[in-house]
Amino acid sequence: MKYTLIFTLLTVSLLTNAQNTSEKNQNSALFELGKGLTIDFDNGNYAFNLGGMVQPSIGLAKDSSAQSDYFMNSKRTYFHIGGNAKNEHVAFFIQTDFSLSAPLLDAWVSYQPHKSTTITFGQKQTIANNREMLLMEDKLQFIDRSLLSSSYSVIGREFGLFLATELPFKKMILIPQIAITSGDGRNSFGVDSRDVDLGGLKYAARLDFYPLGQFSDENDKQIMDLAHESKLKMVLGMAGSYNDGASDVVGEGHGNLALYNLLGQAQLPDYRKVYTDLLLKYKGFSFLGEYAIGTAKGLQGA
């Protein structure tokens, strides 16, 4: 009887501890259209996200001989996986586009030494471009990027080190950012050891100013105002970059452009870009205005 009572008490104690542990460490999985599948562990202290996007395209080409040519393809076929550890202040993100021959778009890891400061290393959307190029492709207003974006950029990814911090001033917010990248765009190290990086590094800075406070939850990460801001919100931005020896017409590649001197030696110009932009939203109305200028100077090897 004594042993039975001890065993019963021990069993009840173990079951109670197991129940308390289960209640303390809740795991969950949630699928949201547009956000993908999010899996949380340890009451949300660890989270993983799986998602993607497919943008089908149908076209018709017709020449003077009245012959028609129809074609169908996938303009964008994205898959991403990301995650974060709240207690460790670490996050990562990997995204691919299987419509491209070289599918890797983003691959980075970040660390937050302070809640308002983030240090990121890897390949990601660079701060050196206009605001539209800072947005993910599934957050665009139309099916493709604007003429300004396509004239000064390609995909907008760079490999390097990025630093961003947030400085609040009452209701106003100031977000300065700096970046040092390879200067050769996406996958800048090429396909093998012979396809080397060309030119020097690229230095960039960006300053965003929110005079009327922050937008609704991530509403500044898309052009359209789906959140229907109840109060007028806007963000003013300025960005500039200096690419020390560019070998691409927009500074997002390597080996695509070269000038030569009389001795046949390659000369790489220094490429500079400056942007200003304004994003404004109010009760479903959104306005995006952007201005850009690009100049080149100097020739390496002259």
Characterization of the model:
The chain is mostly beta strands and 302 residues long. The chain has two domains: 25-99, no CATH class; 107-302, no CATH class. The protein is 11% helix and 49% strand. It is built from three helices and 16 strands. It has helices at 2-24, 131-134, 147-152; strands at residues 28-32, 36-41, 46-62, 68-85, 90-97, 104-114, 117-125, 157-165, 167-169, 172-181, 202-210, 233-243, 259-260, 266-267, 269-282, 285-299. Strands 1, 2, 3, 4, 5, 6, 7, 8, 9, 10, 11, 12, 15 and 16 form a 14-stranded antiparallel β-sheet that branches. Strand 15 and strand 16 form a beta hairpin. The protein is globular and about 70 Å long. It starts with a helix and ends with a strand. Residues 1-12 have low confidence and may be disordered.
